[in-house]
């Protein structure tokens, strides 16, 4: 999605574009997955009424994720997703800027265990990272339930099956450090 721009053909009093400035860069994914992640995050941005968004997503292998997890969380084990908030403290609450690192092998493993596509699992992780950037947390039981209910609501709105609502027996290990 491109940023709004002005050109000579547009009348000065015409309506501005209805979508906020959004930058979503994806590395390590094919075109179909990149398109799905951009569409999902664009929907999430509109749903949460954000005015400015810049997100970089990296799909990485297990070795890379272990290195990131060790470097930033002092845990050398693989995890599903890490989220890095890059927004300055002085910025407003209607903007987010961050990086989301997603481990493809973990997504594939979890998707197989849950019975859906690994691409849907990657979308879940991207939405999870987005929610962290938007101020959601999952470190206590109430926040965990609230966050995962919002993930499921977004997945359903995007035409996907809910993942957590269908998997109430999921292990606490999904509360990984993000």
Q: Describe it for me?
A:
There is one protein chain. The protein is of the alpha/beta class. It has a domain at 22-135: Collagenase (Catalytic Domain) (3-Layer(aba) Sandwich). The protein has 5 helices and 4 strands. Helix 1 (31-47) runs parallel beside helix 4 (118-133), helix 3 crosses helix 4 (118-133) and helix 4 (118-133) crosses helix 5 (141-157). The longest helix is centred in the first third of the chain and has 17 residues, at 31-47. It is globular. The model is unreliable at 1-17 and 168-178 (pLDDT under 50).
Short description:
41% of the residues lie in helices and 16% in strands.
Task: Please write out the topology.
Layout: E1 22-27, H1 31-47, E2 52-60, H2 62-73, E3 81-85, E4 95-103, H3 104-114, H4 118-133, H5 141-157
Parallel strand pairs: 1-2, 2-4
Antiparallel strand pairs: 3-4
Helix pairs in contact: 1-4, 3-4, 4-5
